[in-house]
Amino acid sequence: LKVLDVRGNNLTFLSATTLDYLNVTDMTLSLGDNPWTCNCDMIDFFTFLQVPERKVLDSNNIKCASDGEELLSINEYTICPSFRQPMVIVTIVLITVFLLLFAVLGTMSFYKYKQGIKVWLFTHRMCLWAITEDELDADKKYDAFISYSHKDEEFVNTVLVPGLESGAPKYRICLHYRDWIPGEYIQNQILQSVEDSRRTIVVLSSNFIESVWGQLEFKAAHSQALQDRTNRIIVIVYGQVPPESELDEKLRLYIS
User: Fold this and answer.
1) pLDDT tens, 69-95?
2) In sequence order, what E strands does the chain have?
3) What residues does 36 pair with on adjacent strands?
4) Buried-most residue among 9, 12, 141, 235 (CB within 10 A)?
């Protein structure tokens, strides 16, 4: 059989057995002018017509009996709305699983890198309402690093440090002679002391102004304050100092 013309035969659908037979033949088909019932039973027939190699001469004349619409002009979801449901359910499940996985991984990452994330947010001025300075400084080793001239060490060691370490509350203080590692580069230890401390206390005196190391310590603390975008320098004026107009411009910011 080479040609099958069943136009105008009141066919409403083709069974799976018939379609299986037609799938293995190369006959030319004419199927129009039949009242095809466009429902879920027609999905196999609809798929059959989609194959370009099929020799259906009047495929454009195969129409739904209900509305006269060409079968090939609609999709399987219109023919059988329930055909979409499994795909929709699978899509929803996949999206839900992805969101849950993302939330779990995000939560785990946040708690693992919580401190680093908060520091990054703080330095970029983002979500500041969710970040306190105590959280930002939670990993700091010291409450304060004291920067002073060795000529003022009597005041520092007998008045300032005892008052801070023995008072209420008691503060953890970083001092050159006590906490620095012998043999390490002084510049590196200055930077490390500033970074490890919540505040840098500058004992500002005429001796400090003349001290090269004192100036380096102040500049390191000032740079850290700019990087963290928070004031980390406390200045204690000790003795007579030159007028503000003669002081370093950056230093004047902390005593004016």
Assistant:
1) 888 888 777 777 765 555 656 777 788
2) 3-5, 28-30, 142-147, 173-174, 197-204, 233-237
3) 64
4) 235
